[in-house]
Design goal:
Largest sheet: 11 strands, mixed
Helix content: 25-40%
Structural class: alpha/beta
Number of strands: 11
Strand order of the largest sheet: 1-8-2-3-7-4-6-5-9-10-11
Radius of gyration: 17 Å
């Protein structure tokens, strides 16, 4: 049976729920440590998350979604310092964009460094897509676990992306260990993906952050697919 953790934004600051919240977060952290996959909230859509360093856990994501293994996953972090573990030194233009849009609905494709992440999480490429979600509960999970989480949309590939916990349960049922039941996603579409491995940068997938917004920060043109 799928485990359900009910955690709302209000719970994060409710002193009367502090002990319960920490118990729930610890259960979630332990589950990730043991290679389980969990539906978590983000501001874009619900994600199907697993430890991005654990190849067996990543395979569970591909299996649950029916997603081809050559389709790389976006890695979710809570702090820019985590990038030091698996990406090359950032260009100052990328840092500027991150300062403008993170936390938020945009992912950056960056040069991959080392073997910190599981190779199947990045589909054996030499680059990696990373984002820092703004959903308060999703961020709290990332902060508490301090684990880079691979988290594509929590749906069977080809079906509509889920925006709340019930959508995840209805679609994936017993294919995952648990779901964090929290506030619905705000945007309802996946993050913008900006390829920063070449210049000019180009939008690899459109999303909530627009071409015009990116160009306003960069003060230069951004390409598209």
């Amino acid at each position: 049976m799928t485990k359900i953790w009910k955690i709302t934004e209000a719970d994060l600051t409710d002193a009367s729920k502090k002990v319960m919240l920490e118990e729930q977060l610890e259960e979630i952290k332990i589950a990730f440590t043991y290679g389980e996959i969990i539906g978590i909230p983000t501001e874009t859509v619900y994600g199907l998350a697993a430890d991005a360093r654990n190849g067996e856990a990543i395979n569970k994501i591909f299996s649950a979604k029916g997603r081809p293994g050559d389709n790389p996953l976006i890695i979710h972090i809570h702090d820019i310092s985590q990038l030091e573990d698996f990406t090359a030194v950032l260009d100052e233009r990328v840092t500027k964009l991150m300062g403008a849009f993170w936390p938020g609905p945009i992912s950056f494709i960056l040069p991959l460094k080392g073997d910190y992440l599981s190779t199947n999480a990045v589909a054996e490429l030499d680059s990696v897509a990373v984002r820092m979600p703004s959903h308060p509960v999703g961020r709290k999970i990332l902060q508490y676990t301090d684990i880079p989480l691979a988290a594509p949309s929590a749906n069977i590939s080809g079906k509509p992306s889920p925006t709340n916990a019930q959508h995840v349960i209805d679609d994936l049922a017993d294919r995952l260990y648990g779901v964090v039941d929290s506030e619905s996603a705000i945007y309802g579409i996946e993050s913008t993906v900006l390829d920063c491995t070449q210049y000019p940068y180009r939008i690899a997938r459109p999303g909530a952050v627009t071409k015009e917004e990116l160009e306003a920060v960069l003060e230069t043109a951004v390409g598209t697919v």
